[in-house]
Specification:
This protein folds into three domains: 165 residues, Rossmann fold (3-Layer(aba) Sandwich), CATH 3.40.50.300; 51 residues, no CATH class; 160 residues, Rossmann fold (3-Layer(aba) Sandwich). Helix content is 33%, strand content 23%. The chain is built from 18 helices and 20 strands. By secondary structure, it is of the alpha/beta class. Bound molecules: adenosine-5'-triphosphate. It holds the Pfam family ABC_tran. One of its GO terms (molecular function) is ATP binding. Keywords: ATP-binding, Nucleotide-binding, Repeat, Sugar transport, Transport.
Length: 524
């Protein structure tokens, strides 16, 4: 270990941090120290206090107790935005770049410079933007509208912007949540590259493998407290899960059914029958069947069309041609109410836009789809709403002070559980779940996948739309899409590389063929 007397001060050091929200203690005497050039992971279960710490490290929230220093200096005063920006930046899973502006405008937005009052010279601005992007090895046209960028490109713009303010410490809060495998690989390459140039990272992720791939140090929080900080190499997967959950890694999550399901093929009636479905610019001629008792995976990377197909099933788009039948009846009318009435429940991709009303309570959000069951003649009885919601809070193990708490006060993972609860509230024939474990911790992931399995075990059907291998492993069968077409199907026992190859549009070849080829190579 470096001699503390000679080691450079931590780029960020928080000690004794306490933060409460009403009756909830979000952080209790917590701390973290990030060394220059270090890639430091912060992990913990949903609600452990990670986002609260990020809010404090970035000056968005004031701690009740504790101190914060950057490179040995006290944190800037509240409101001194430029000073905060030159010390720390945060790239969130949800982008902060402004869609209507160009990349160049986003890069130089709100930048206080002596010439700020002079008219903006667009050519010069673009040239500077292009230089800046080039300096950080980001290959994006500065004139492009930010809304036309991919999630990955937007993150690169945010990283370049952060670095251009002088920050050498970047917080990445679940940056991979909306990237596919290739996007993640490219992001990690960029981060490693920047790390070599002395940039330090605090990396928050629920994907523990990413922690091992990218980070050298890991800090675990649990129930608002700091539990451990150690070199990643000293904490294997089981030890990490144990630190996060406080229980031995071998113990199953409370209430979770085994996520691996059964070995026998489903023989139930088809509950979802899709034939020749086409939506222009999204997917073409997709046919697919999900039977009672089955969990089917609809695998595909970003732009494969799998998410749009899921949204079509839930009534959010109207297919150009083809037919959808649920429980033997063709769904003719379009729109969400028709899909709901037919028996389709949706867990949407983006819980912020399509899922939740943040200012409304957990109870209201969880029962939005079933208001007809909450009182006679179109009325909604608060007592019945609460009762219904309390059942769901228990059913999905939602951590909330109560059914009346606004959803926005819940941690990200618990918000996701509210979305799942709502989709299940109607007791749908078919549950369509898009990336259902996005943003949830290891244990909750097992729990949610177990809950989806239960939908099938109860005689219904589930379609899991995802590119996450853990989600897909919980399925009985997988249909893989690439560029809007179904390209492969897998029964149980598939190999990761074959499924990934199918999702990336590389034809998976039978093992026999590969063996022959290898043999020939050796001979030649
Ligand atoms: N604005 C707020 N009002 C009330 N409670 C809040 C607020 N922000 C956070 N909390 C509470 O503080 C606790 C810590 O939440 P935080 O969002 O920091 O957790 P997290 O570790 O980031 O979780 P996740 O992995 O689910 O995102 C939770 O119990 C949460 O409900």
């Amino acid at each position: 270990m470096a001699d503390p007397a000679t080691a450079p001060p931590a780029v960020a050091e928080a000690t004794g941090i306490g933060k409460r929200f009403g009756a909830t203690v979000a952080l209790r005497d917590a701390g973290i120290s990030v060394a220059p050039g270090e890639s430091h992971a912060l992990v913990g279960r949903n609600g452990a206090g990670k986002s609260t710490l990020v809010g404090i490290l970035t000056g968005l929230q004031q701690p009740d107790t504790g101190t914060l220093r950057f490179s040995g200096e006290p944190a800037p005063s509240v409101g001194d935005t430029d000073a905060w920006r030159s010390r720390v930046a945060c790239v969130y899973q949800r982008s902060t770049v402004i869609g209507d502006l160009s990349v160049a405008e986003n890069l130089f937005l709100n930048r206080q410079s002596p010439g700020a009052l002079r008219p903006i010279r667009w050519t010069a601005l673009r040239r500077r933007a292009s230089e800046l992007l080039g300096e950080y090895g980001v290959d994006i046209d500065p004139a492009a509208r930010a809304r036309d960028l991919t999630v990955e490109q937007r993150q690169f713009v945010e990283i370049a912007r952060a670095l251009s303010f002088g920050a050498r410490f970047i917080i990445l809060d679940e940056p991979t949540a909306r990237l596919d495998a290739r996007g993640i690989a490219r992001l990690f390459d960029k981060l490693r590259d920047l790390q070599r140039q002395g940039v330090a990272f605090l990396f928050i992720s629920h994907h523990l493998q990413e922690v091992y791939d990218l980070c050298t140090t890991v800090t675990v929080y649990r129930d608002a407290r700091h539990i451990v900080t150690a070199p990643v190499a000293d904490l294997d997967h089981d030890a990490l899960v144990e630190a996060m959950t406080g229980e031995s890694a071998a113990a199953p999550a409370a209430g979770a059914a085994p996520a691996t399901g059964r070995a026998t093929a489903a023989t139930g009636a088809p509950l979802l029958d899709v034939t020749g479905l086409t939506l222009r610019d999204a997917y073409a001629d997709v046919s697919l069947e999900v039977r009672a008792g089955e969990v089917v995976g609809l695998a595909g990377a970003t732009a494969s069309g799998n998410v749009r197909l899921a949204e079509t099933l839930a009534g959010l788009h109207r297919a150009d041609t083809g037919r959808i039948a649920v429980a033997g009846r063709e769904v003719r009318a379009s729109g969400v109410p028709a899909a709901l009435a037919a028996g389709v429940g949706l867990v949407p991709e983006d819980r912020h836009h399509q899922g939740l009303v943040g200012s409304r309570s957990v109870a209201e959000n969880a029962t939005l789809t079933v208001t007809d069951q909450l009182g006679p003649y179109g009325t909604v009885l608060p007592s019945r709403t609460r009762e219904f919601a309390e059942r769901m809070i228990k059913d999905l193990d939602i951590r909330t002070p109560g059914a009346g708490t606004p959803v926005s006060a819940l941690s990200g993972g618990n918000q996701q559980k509210v979305v799942v609860a709502r989709a299940l509230a109607t007791d749908p024939h078919v549950l369509v779940a898009v990336r259902p474990t996005n943003g949830v911790d290891v244990r909750s992931k097992e729990f949610l996948l177990g809950r989806i399995r239960k939908v099938a075990d109860d005689g219904r059907a589930a379609l899991v739309v995802s590119d996450e291998l853990d989600d897909l492993r919980a399925c009985d069968r997988i249909v893989a899409m690439f560029h809007g077409r179904v390209v492969a199907e897998f029964g149980r026992g598939w190999r990761d590389e074959d499924l990934v190859a199918a999702m990336e549009g590389v034809a998976a070849r039978p093992a026999q063929e590969r063996d022959t080829e290898q043999g020939e190579e050796q001979e030649g």
